[in-house]
Amino acid sequence: MNSSGANQNSPCFPGRVFQPGSVSIILPTLNERQAVSALICGIRRLGIRRAKICVVDGPSSDGTAKAAKRAGARVFRIRERGKAAAIRAAQQRIPGSSIVMMDADGSYSPSDIPLFLSCLGKNDVCIGSRFLGRMAKGSMSPINKAGNAALTRLANLLFGGDISDVCSGMWAFRRSAFRRMEINAKGFELEANFYVQCKKLRLKLAEVPISYGVRKGNSKLRLSDGIKIGIYLILERFGLKR
User: Fold this and answer.
1) Alpha carbon 79 to its chain's center
2) What's the pLDDT band for 223 if we cut at 50, 70, 90?
3) I want to staple 104 with a disulfide (CB 3.0 to 4.6 A). Which of 27, 93, 118, 139 is the partner?
4) Burial class (CB within 10 angstroms; exposed 0-12, middle 13-18, buried 19+) of 187
5) 156 touches 205 (CB < 8 A)
6) What's the pLDDT at 222?
7) Global pTM?
């Protein structure tokens, strides 16, 4: 995994907000040039002390990595596609006593990051719930809402939980918990993978209400991916191999 240092002449100007401990914000990307610069700037404006913004890009063809570096992020390039591959690559190499992961498509708001960091004060893992927060009009289709609800009910039924949004693309972890997780997802099962690991490792998990907006660019999620998430949950619950 090749590292590129952050651009010191970034157009983003952070303020001064105190946050104890070091924080790494991981942005897995694949062709997210339309949204990644604004997201990075939004994170930097929070002014979180000792925060590192790490873009794990693999492998974009639209200039995402260049845009992210120009905006001030540290960029890692990987050959394999997908968020799960990005998180596996980052798991043992990204520093920080607190880790925040969020999709880089513009649908998640950096203004929610302080809520996650506060949540980690009493929890090992925090998940952002779009259903407990505010969704912008058009941010999620009725089919996707129904699919998310069904998968969340399945996850709760299989693992005895009570969360409201198992497919959320915004999570935070204490470093100790993040490094213990076995990331075995192959694609869009990553968030279900996180939830399964929380249950198997008996980690303390809490939800944070978040804002959810309309993504920039085309969605990569397909109906078949929802089916794969459901199958993943069932196989993990009963210890079956895929």
Assistant:
1) 19
2) confident
3) 27
4) middle
5) no
6) 73
7) 0.90
Distances (CA, A) of 6 to 58, 124, 206, 224, 233: 18, 29, 32, 37, 38
pLDDT of residue 241: 76
- Measuring CA to CA, which residue among 170, 56, 188 is closest to residue 107? 170
DSSP H helix total and E strand total for the chain? 8, 8
φ/ψ of residue 17, rounded to 5: -115, 125
Find where tokens 């001064």 sit: 16
* C-alpha span between 43 and 69 (Å, rounded): 14
Phi, psi dihedrals of residue 44, rounded to the nearest 5°: -65, -35
Q: CA 105, CA 107: separation in Å to the nearest integer?
A: 6
pLDDT, tens digit (0-9, with 9 covering 90-100), for 142-185: 999 999 999 999 999 999 999 999 999 999 999 999 999 999 99
* Interatomic CA distance for residues 72 and 74, integer angstroms: 7
Topology of domain 19-237 in CATH is Spore Coat Polysaccharide Biosynthesis Protein SpsA; Chain A (3.90.550)
Residues 6+ apart with CB under 8 A from 59: 30, 77, 78, 79, 81
Q: Terminus-to-terminus CA distance in the chain, angstroms?
A: 27
Which residues are within 8 A (CB) of 173 and not within 5 positions of it... i.e. 6 or more apart? 98, 99, 100, 101, 120, 124, 125, 126, 181
Q: Is the pLDDT of residue 10 over 60?
A: no
| Tens digit of each residue's pLDDT (9 = 90 or more) over 79-134 | 998 899 999 999 988 989 999 999 999 999 999 999 999 999 999 999 999 999 99
- Give SS3 for 63: coil
Tokens of 65: 């990595």
